[in-house]
Each structure stands twice: as C-alpha cells, then as structure tokens.
Specification:
Layout (H helix, E strand, L loop, with lengths): L3 E6 L3 H12 L3 E7 L3 H10 L7 E2 L2 H6 L5 E4 L6 H10 L3 E4 L7 H14 L3 E3 L7 H12 L5 E9 L19 H17 L9 E10 L5 E10 L4 E7 L8 E5 L2 E5 L14 E7 L2 E7 L5 H14 L12 H18 L27 E2 L8 E2 L1 E4 L6 H13 L4 E5 L6 H13 L6 E6 L7 H15 L4 E6 L8 H13 L3 E7 L3 H14 L6 E3 L21 H10 L2 E4 L11 H4 L8 H5 L2 H17 L3 H10 L5 E5 L4 H7 L9 H7 L4
Parallel strand pairs: 1-2, 1-4, 2-3, 4-5, 5-6, 7-10, 17-18, 17-24, 18-19, 19-20, 20-21, 21-22, 22-23, 23-24
Antiparallel strand pairs: 7-11, 8-9, 9-10, 11-12, 12-13, 13-14, 15-16
C-alpha cells in the first residue's frame, strides 16, 4: 500500500474539511462516503468525485468495503464510539472526531479495541498537527521564556440558542465542554507535559459555569493543577465569545498563540503568528503555510498508517492522551453538575463490540440454592463510580457469558452498590444474574448490625433478596453462634439464600458449621478469602486472610466448601512489570505478594504459559479455577479490555499435577 484509501461516515462540515485536507495530502485519498441521507450522500459524493458504488447508505457496508483502508468518523459525538468500534472490528484504521466517546470509559474501550485489532486509532485534534504547535514546543523547550508556571487556553463562541441544535440538545450530549472543551484541556495538558513529551494529567480539576435552559453547559471555566507545579486556566463556551488563544507564562517571559485552533480551517492558507515576550520586548514569528488546516492531520494519519503505527506520533493526540483528556472532561462536567444522557440514572446506552470476536465464554455451573447457573468468574463491583462507567464493563461481561457479581455494603460508601443497582434496573436483568452481597465490615461487624446493612444494600441494588450473603469480616470477640443465629433469622425472613464469611479463618468457619449442625440452623457454605497462586505475604487491607496455605487448602478439599477467591489474580502479580506497578505503592503486587516463593511460582507460571500459548496471568487464573473443591474466581476488570485479557484462561484445563507444581507442592 502506497496510499491510504479513506472512507468518511457523516458528510457534515467537519467531513468536508477532512476531505479537503485529504485532497492536499499525498499519502491519502478519499474513496468512500456513508450517509443515511441520499441527498447528502449525492452532494458530498459529487463534490469529491466519489464513485457511485462507493456511496453507502449503510455505515456497516462502508466499514466492510474491501477497498477502504481507513475510516474518518464525523457524525455527532453520541455516535462516535459505536461507529469507531464498528470500523475497528471490521479491521479498519480509524480517525474519529473529538470527543471520541461520551466519557473516558468509552474512549478506553476504543483504545483497547485498536490494540486488539492492531489498527491505527486517532482522536482527531487537528490543531495539534499544525506546524505552529511543533514550533511552540521547540520555543518552550529552548528555555527562552524560562520554566513554565501557568497556562491560559480558551475556546468559545456565541451560537444563537436553538433547542434542536446539537450544541444545545441534551439528547445529542450538547454543551460547551463536549463540543470544544477538549481543545483547551488538551493544550494545557500538552504544554504541562512538554518536558516529558506527553500529555500531563492534572492532579486537581476545579470548575464552574452556566447550565442553560435546555440543561446543557453553555459556558464553562476550569482550573487545573499539575504535579510539576504548573497551573492552568481553561474556558469554553457555545453561548459566549472568548478570545480563543493559548498563552504560556514562564519565569522569563510568555508565549502566545493568537489563533491556535482553526487557522485556515476551510480553505487555507493556514498562516499563523507566534508572539514571544521576554523582558517586556515582544517579537513575532510568522509561519506561512499555503495548505489548509486539515491537510496536516490527514497526511500525518495516513503516514502513520503506512508506517504500520497504531497511534499518531507526538504532538498528535496519543491513545493515553485521549483517555486522559476525556477523564478531565468527565471531571470538569462533574464540577458543573452536567450529566449527559448516557450518565443519567436508569438510562440504557449499550455500546456494542467492546469485546473482540473469538474469545471463550465464561462457564456457568449449578449451585444448590441459587436460581440461575453461576459463572465461574465473578465480577467485582468496587471500582465503577457512574452508571456510564459500569455499563461499559457490565454489558461486556454479560456478552462474555458472565452473570455473577460481587459487591459490598462499604464499597464507595454505598455508591458502588447504587451504581450496580441502577444498571440492573435499566437492563432488567435481576432474574438473570446472581449478586453476591456482603455486609458486616469492621468496625460494624456485629450480629445486630447485619439486617440494617442488608436492607440498605438490597435497596441500593434494586433487589428484594440476596441469593448469597457473605459477612465481610469476622469478629472473633463475638461467639460464632450469634452470627449463625442472625443469619438463620435472615434466611427465615426470605432475605437471603445461603451465607458464608469473607476473611474468616477455616477454624472459625468450621466452628460455625458445627454450631449450625448442633442447633439445626443453616450452616455457612461459602468462604470468601484471598486465594491466588501467589501467596499473600502482607495483608492487602487490615483483617485480610489467605486460603493458600496447606491447612486451608486441605480443609476446603476435605469439606467440599465453596470458595470465592478475592484478588484471584494477585492484584496483577503475574502481569508484566509495567502493568503491575500501576497501583498505589502500599498495595502493589510486589508489596503484598513479594517473596522468593512467589517469584518461583511466577517463573513456573511463565514456563507453563509458554507451553499453552497464553499469559502467566491466564495461568494464575486457571489455577484458581482448577482446584478440586468448588472454586469461583473474583476478578475486578475496569474495562472491557481487562475482561478480554482474562478470558483465555477459560480454555485451559490444568491437571492436578500442574496445579500442585505451580503452587510448589511438587
């Protein structure tokens, strides 16, 4: 391939710009257009000499067209993520207008899909590819204005109010932050990260603004603080004119871009000026470019694709830059109190194709007393803050065959149960899934506290019954019989199915079983301790208990106890180092699982992984599932890609000798 063949979905004004840019780009050419409007298809096709058989009424048909190498998506932004996933899963390279998704969770799914399909993906911030940005970076790095201390970046315009306009319509996720807020955010992050050559993440995001009559943010102001001490003022608007500049303030002077965002947008030339002030003296650099603005983006993307790259080179918007940018937009909107329709309670927005094809399905087994067969992998629900974040992961989980969920009364101060409950209600899946509910966490681990916590959990979860209820901690100061009797009362009232303990010793668990049998009461049936191939050497949290000891494993085998393993993947201990070091230092895998014995377990897992063509991470998951007692593995993926990376473990059937050898028992 010597030239990239592009198709465009959505023939609006931004698509016209990209098409005109392609006409000037030697490495790319426009081949196809897709629109549901026959008139717009014809007009756009005629204007750009697109063959009749490459004018598609169906978006999927364009994505499937063999003569199209890459797709530029220029529809309104509520449809960006879905269509980008459609194109990526069809094996096409993708450029998508900003924002690439309605939140960072959607953009994360796009980045993961691009990696899975080995396709180029770019969030199309065209201004970053204009030569003035490269020159700005060069000047700042030269030290001429000293060390950066502060940044100002604004992009605002005053569009007449029209409730049906995409700018003001909540159904189209209108508002200033999602329309143009990404520009000042990306500029501030680019400049704050110049020394490292990346997009820096702010440590603090503060904001204020105006929510208009239609319910969208019309004007927004923000303050960002970065770890290196740099601060930034950002602003955007769809209902207020702003100066639309970037200013970089340093210890020796300042630099200003008077026209950073859209120089020569429609036709060109895209001439610009950079103003540099040092010691009160201002000089100007005039950059002359006969090309129109979008030529630089179209050529850079095409060259990257031809070179086999999966993301645009710096200073274009990198994959992690896109995730970070949309994270900041989420935080900024939260400061203003503006939720898109995708984030409203109870809204059903399902993003298809978040998982690649060909992955194994999560197996399900029948468990006595549970209405539905349960998936052997159990989704931990302690890390999703909004319904939109949760939906991305949980919809993918159901698609993969998972139907078991684990939550706890204390997670997120109750927020995480509430978010899961909103998803359950919006999807209407309460009869199809099994939710494991936990309560009685320290310091409220007393029999008299259990029912009130359970009632609150069920209300948050929109459930009337917990098929499995687990005491989140043990309190050995309380006679075990008091817990057994309290759980029997809850079962008699129809509030729970069967019960068990989390972070209980096998000794206390056995005592509870004995007491229950002696008094004709329901005995605990499930133990929810840490069980992973790596043995916990430092408790991840106070009161944590591991089941990977010879005594505990023997107890589980001899008594056929159901075991639900939390941190079944040892917090990523078996992942490559760059992935396992992302957690806080006090709970990182090496902190909680570091030992010579575990290092040998990891070495053996890698050896077996090479034999089976999977990852050591998959071997560790398969080890938990391969126990001779009923064993369920609790996992905590934060994105569909993390689900996908776990599923290959399900194709492994480790034999008893391998299970013992991995755990240093052979």
């Amino acid at each position: 391939m010597t030239q990239v063949s592009w198709g465009i979905i959505g023939p609006g004004s931004i698509a016209q710009n990209f098409a005109d840019g392609l006409a000037q780009a030697p490495s790319g050419t426009l081949t196809a257009i897709a629109s549901r409007s026959a008139a717009r298809r014809a007009s756009f096709g005629d204007a750009h000499a697109i063959a009749d058989d490459m004018r598609f009424a169906d978006y999927a048909a364009l994505c499937d067209a063999p003569d199209v190498d890459a797709v530029h998506i220029a529809v309104p932004h509520p449809f960006h993520a879905e269509l980008a996933l459609m194109a990526l899963r069809a094996g096409k390279h993708v450029s998508v207008e900003k924002p690439a998704g309605l939140n960072a969770a959607e953009v994360t799914a796009l980045v993961e899909a691009a990696a899975q399909e080995n396709c180029f993906f770019m969030e199309a911030y065209m201004y970053l590819l204009h030569p003035q940005i490269a020159r700005m970076i060069q000047i700042v790095r030269s030290g001429e204005i000293g060390d950066i201390t502060h940044i100002r970046a604004t992009f605002g315009f005053n569009a007449p109010f029209d409730a049906s306009s995409r700018l003001y319509d909540p159904a189209l996720a209108g508002g200033a932050i999602l329309d143009v807020g990404g520009y000042p955010v990306s500029a501030a992050r680019l400049i704050a990260g110049i020394d490292e050559g990346n997009f820096a993440m702010p440590t603090s995001v503060k904001g204020s603004g105006i929510i208009g009559a239609s319910g969208v943010d019309e004007v927004a102001y923000g303050l960002l603080t970065f770890a290196n001490g740099i601060t930034a003022e950002i602003a955007c608007a769809v209902a207020r004119n702003m100066d639309n500049t970037i200013q970089v303030i340093g210890t020796k002077g300042s630099l200003t871009l008077p026209n950073p965002w859209v120089p020569g947008r429609n036709e060109g030339p895209s001439d610009t000026t950079i103003e540099i002030t040092v010691d009160g003296i201002t000089r100007e650099e005039h950059l002359q470019h006969p090309e129109m603005l979008f030529k630089f983006e179209a050529e850079a993307a095409s060259q990257a694709i031809l070179a086999g790259q999966v993301e645009i080179p710096y200073p274009g918007m990198s994959h992690q830059g896109s995730i970070g940018n949309n994270t900041v937009l989420d935080q900024w909107r939260k400061e203003l109190g503006y939720k898109t329709f995708a984030e409203q309670d109870g809204v059903v927005r399902i993003l298809p194709r978040c998982l690649p094809a060909g992955l194994p399905q999560v197996p399900r087994v029948n468990v006595d007393g549970v209405p539905n067969p349960m998936s052997r992998l159990v989704m931990g629900c302690d890390n999703r803050e909004t319904p939109a974040e949760g939906a991305i992961v949980w919809d993918a989980w159901m698609e993969a065959g998972g139907n078991s969920f684990d939550t706890g009364f204390v997670y997120g101060g109750g927020l995480h149960e509430k978010v899961l409950g909103q998803w359950i209600k919006s999807r209407g899946v309460e009869k199809d899934i099994t939710v494991i509910v936990k309560g009685a966490h320290s310091p409220y681990c007393f029999p008299r506290a259990i029912e009130a916590q359970l009632d609150m959990s069920l209300a948050r979860l929109n459930l009337d019954h917990a098929p499995i209820y687990i005491l989140h901690r043990d309190n050995e100061a309380v006679p075990v019989g008091e817990f057994v009797e309290a759980m029997a009362q809850l079962k008699d009232r129809g509030k729970i199915g069967f019960w068990g303990g989390s972070n209980w010793s096998t000794e206390r668990f056995a005592q509870a079983v004995s007491y229950a049998k002696e008094h004709g009461l329901p005995a605990p049936r499930i133990l929810n301790n840490n069980l992973s191939l790596a043995v916990m050497t430092k408790p991840v949290w106070d009161g944590c208990v591991t089941s990977n000891t010879r005594e505990s494993l023997k107890f589980l085998r001899d008594n056929d106890v159901i075991h639900l393993s939390w941190s079944s993947q040892a917090r990523g201990y078996f992942l490559p180092r760059d992935l396992r070091d992302r957690l806080p230092a006090d709970t990182r895998p090496e902190t909680c699982y570091g030992s010579d014995d575990n290092a040998e377990r990891r070495r053996r897992a890698r050896e077996l992984a090479a034999k089976y063509g999977v990852s050591a991470h998959n071997i560790a998951t398969a080890w938990v599932l391969a126990q001779s007692f009923p064993s369920f593995a609790l996992i905590g993926p934060r994105s569909p890609g993390e689900i996908a990376s776990t599923l290959p473990a399900l194709d492994l059937n480790l034999i008893a000798d391998e299970v013992a050898w991995l755990n240093l028992e052979r």
